[in-house]
Amino acid sequence: MTKTKSRQPIDGQINPRQACPCGSGKRYKACHGAPGGAQDAMVRRPFAGLAAECQLVALREFVPSATAPLPLARPAGREVTLATVLPTAAAAIVRPDNEALVGLQVLNRSADLSRDLGRAVSWALTAQAGSVLPTVSTTGEGEQVRLQDLLTPETPLDITVHPDFAWWIPGDQPPSDEAAASLQQANAAIMPTEAVSGAGIEAAYWVDAGDKAHLRWVRPEQEEQLLAALARLAARDELDLGGD
Prior knowledge:
Elements: H1 53-61, E1 66-69, E2 80-83, E3 92-94, E4 100-103, H2 113-126, E5 131-133, H3 147-150, E6 160-161, H4 177-188, E7 193-195, E8 204-208, E9 213-217, H5 223-235
């Protein structure tokens, strides 16, 4: 058995196995010490500072079909509606009637979801009617606007959960064969989802996964803090959802 020696840094250098001093949480050799320099560090809470933070996470991660008007901080020429997912998982569309929609569940994402959405919303505010934005740039270059720069931070979302994706097709527009097939496929994949309402409850949803129903609830607390609280409740045999 051979024993390897740990690499010692030369004076003025950083041990490549130590945490990167930039605060990314990565080892130096995988961050600023990597060939070509650091990549974009993942933003762990991209919607921090918004009253709608937990709602945005729920719509991004597990709510299948929902829409919500975005509370824009500045008057704009058109309203923008946030959607869980758009046809072909597009980043944004502006319909021929000038209605603008921005999607959360998209094909490509960067290390900062807020920046991705900021770019999509900025595009939707100025694009011509009938335009589609398939994806946004996921590089750190270009416009750095984030969702926090565009919304009123204290305003929560007014979310409508839909049983299907019928809202993809405007009511006065007959769908093409391709659109109808896409709509049918999307509807078949939906797991029935209902928002849980009650005092102090937000971003909580019942999801019918078939054999079991799941409660999915996005919480704002730090993970360690929340798990410790749940463990204390379980130890007292108080971790339940109450009676019917």
